[in-house]
Specification:
alpha+beta; 37% helix; single chain; 10 helices; globular; 13-stranded antiparallel beta sheet
Amino acid sequence: MALSQGSASFRLFQFDAKLDPDALLEACAADALPPLPLAGLRETAISGWSSPRFFTDGEINDETCRAGKFVHLSLVKAERKIPKSLLNAYCRAEEVALMREKGLDSVNRATRQQIKEEVAKQLLPKMQPTLKGIDLAIDLERSLLYTDAKSDKQVDALAEAFARAAHTALVPLDAAGAALRRHNVRTDELAPASFTPEDNGDFVVNDPGLDFLTWLFWRFQTGKGSFELPGAGSPHAEIVLDGPVSLVLEAQGAFHTSLSHGTPLLSREFKTALLGGKKISSVKMLLTIGGETWTAGVSAPSFAFTGIKLPPTDKNRDPSATFLDRMRLLQQLSDSFFALYGAFLAVRADAAAWRRDLAAIAKWMPALEVKA
């Protein structure tokens, strides 16, 4: 479970309802994944909820799924799949037998497709089911949902299942959603921005998440990677950015550039990509607050965090306490990140301040230090 152990990854969502945990757990228990041997699993996939203990644990209740203010669940998909190499071997055997029987040198495409369908129909019921789970933690007090769902397909499946169980919709706290919900900024009203000293014409990526990561890199490189975060005592945050890094520009030529190994942020390729109008779409971030450091890859515009390394915690506590420790640290990471995003949006929404930063970045970029 990515949220409770190992290297964590998550995306953050918000919902508008105040959930009744008992009603939520009851609804999830009613839609739990069937127990082994997964009765009803034939040729189509099935999905359902489970407790975080293991993927087919349909015992969903307060004891197994509650930890402090969190409800911890898994959404599990079970399906039968035929390994590609096995399917190809069986199909080829049938093709060879058919050619020998008919005296043919080859079989046409239509025949191969028919053989494939017949072989798949025979093999599929014999395959053992595979299980894939989406880990999620629901913050009942703040109406937030943390999940390790990565692909759009997983997010859509989670949103649909959550809406059935909780009777409320999930709103992604991506670049646009976080700007509106946390900082009351409508990103669709912001004009496209170019950081390069040259005119890029119509080829400007208009995405506040990409703008933010690129702006953050400029702050870091020019010695302004320190921020005062809002809250009790105005905690001080230090930002360091590192590779691997990806940049994007939907224009002529290469749309996407990925750099890793060595010092990619000091490479000629990275500088060339920036000068060509590309903006940072993903980067590794080191965030230090009060002597504690978080390391995570962050991607825009989704604001997905991957490969998170958390400050050390006591690993000898019981699983529930360990989970709460990790969620406290993940919450601090996301709150701090969105506070940094708020600092950027305050500049981005101020026309005069934004013009000043754009001018400074355009002047700085050609002089960016690189290593041969």
